[in-house]
Write a sequence for this structure.
């Protein structure tokens, strides 16, 4: 077994020239390979390799956090969790993730399908593109993976084995536990907010006892409620799109956690896209884009609910809420009551997770391009301040908010302030 060595544009062809999976997808003639490093995420190397017969993506983990450097070591085993999460997502929501061609655990690399002409969803939303299928595709993906990875559906022996397998993804969980739930609410070392115009609101949020208590309750739910196999980092930078196709990528943060986490993180990213639109109006107003983004949140939630309910009625084969207790005794209403309770809990917790996700993307280490690419600092700070206010409201008042229309009405009011 060769020791781990990071690939580079210069070494990739020599290192992987004999890899059968790669050669079968792009062609054997390495002299005709064209290699580009395109990783723009916080953690890994990502290469696009083109040959005479096609193209593929080679993703390799580094033994440290790329965004920070080797002062922050991070285990290579995240590549193992990403590979195993992708295989499960493909089985549970076929066609929703890139095809995997090869996995090399020692080199922490995954060779996978090159998605083209797909672009990262976040970039599309910043450009003002309205993708017609994302709400439906992502809603179905979340319902199918989150339902089918849980004790509602799986044989409990298999679910417990997966729970144990993914339990070792501790370092990546630790990143989320600190960066999402704690750091934004105190003067943590790696925090940054680029606009001094935000200082006052940041001080207010850090002095906000109700918010801090809520963030810690959410952290507790995140860490202790091992309901299902999560994607774990389902934001708009982890989704690739065309007008007709949507694929989820990058599930290296996968672990057993609460259903509401993926849903909340995802919707938070649509709400942040909404609040950032004002900063991208140099080529024209974004009113219809704003309306589109709110519609996307409504449809995503609705598709998620509908599909989850459908699976509840047709695929509830696990040890939770067994049919023998309900339908088999003619008690269909009992099963529906239990479903309503579960969806209500997901709704309430989803809002909380969404609120803290908004905060950490503006105040913590890992920012997002929706706000970062707004050149005018005052305008950017205005957009960010509104998003922070919105995030605080939905996190703290999540038990008193009853519909997504209510959330969106509030978002629209804050945005127009
Ligand atoms: C140090 S990693 C920072 C962030 O990047 C990843 O994409 C996750 O969102 C993580 O929180
Ligand atoms: Mg990622």
């Amino acid at each position: 077994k060769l020791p781990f060595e990071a690939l580079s544009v210069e070494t990739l062809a020599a290192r992987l020239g004999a890899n059968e999976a790669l050669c079968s997808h792009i062609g054997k003639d390495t002299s005709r390979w064209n290699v580009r490093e395109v990783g723009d995420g916080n953690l890994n190397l990502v290469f696009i390799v083109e040959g005479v017969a096609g193209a593929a993506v080679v993703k390799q983990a580094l033994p440290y956090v790329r965004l920070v450097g080797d002062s922050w070591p991070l285990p290579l085993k995240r590549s193992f969790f990403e590979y195993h999460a992708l295989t499960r997502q493909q089985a549970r929501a076929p066609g929703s993730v890139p095809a995997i061609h090869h996995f090399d655990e020692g080199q922490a690399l995954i060779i996978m399908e090159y998605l083209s002409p797909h672009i990262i969803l976040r970039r599309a939303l910043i450009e003002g593109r309205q993708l017609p299928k994302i709400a439906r595709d992502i809603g179905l993906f979340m319902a199918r993976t989150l339902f089918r990875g849980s004790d509602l559906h799986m044989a409990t022996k298999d679910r417990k084995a997966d729970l144990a397998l993914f339990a070792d993804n501790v370092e990546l969980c630790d990143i989320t536990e600190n960066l999402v739930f704690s750091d934004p609410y105190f003067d943590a070392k790696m925090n940054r907010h680029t606009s001094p115009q935000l200082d006052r609101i940041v001080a207010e949020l850090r002095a906000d006892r109700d918010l801090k208590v809520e963030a810690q309750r959410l952290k507790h739910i995140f860490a202790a409620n091992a309901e299902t196999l999560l994607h774990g980092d389902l934001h708009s930078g982890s989704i690739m799109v065309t007008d007709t196709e949507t694929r989820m990528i990058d599930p290296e943060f996968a672990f057993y956690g609460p259903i509401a986490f993926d849903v909340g993180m995802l919707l938070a990213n649509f709400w942040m896209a909404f609040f950032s639109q004002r900063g991208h109006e140099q080529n024209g107003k974004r009113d219809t884009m704003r309306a589109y983004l709110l519609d996307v949140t409504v449809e995503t939630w609705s598709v998620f609910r509908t599909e989850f309910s459908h699976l509840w009625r047709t695929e509830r084969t696990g040890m939770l809420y067994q049919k023998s207790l309900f339908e088999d005794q003619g008690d269909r209403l009992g099963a529906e009551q239990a479903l309503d309770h579960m969806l209500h809990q997901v709704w309430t917790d989803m809002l909380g997770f969404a609120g803290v996700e908004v905060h950490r993307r503006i105040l913590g280490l890992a920012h997002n391009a929706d706000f970062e690419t707004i050149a005018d600092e005052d305008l950017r700070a205005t957009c960010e301040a509104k998003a922070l206010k919105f995030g605080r409201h939905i996190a703290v008042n999540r038990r008193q908010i009853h519909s997504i229309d209510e959330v969106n009405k509030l978002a629209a009011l804050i945005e127009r302030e």
User: Anything to note?
Assistant: The pocket of magnesium ion (ligand 2) is lined by residues 41, 233, 238, 250 (CB under 6 Å). The radius of gyration is 22 Å. The mean pLDDT is 97. The first strand starts at residue 34 and ends at 37.
